[in-house]
Write the structure tokens for this entry.
Amino acid sequence: MLGNAQRLHMLIKPALRLTKKREYDNHQGSS
């Protein structure tokens, strides 16, 4: 169970970073 949670965290963290970067890029593009 703990290993599964760790694996999920490893998958989710980069995804969050990607979405944050995409939002930032969108803001840069609109202004």
User: Anything to note?
Assistant: The chain has one helix and no strands. The two ends are 45 Å apart (CA to CA). The chain has a mean pLDDT of 88.
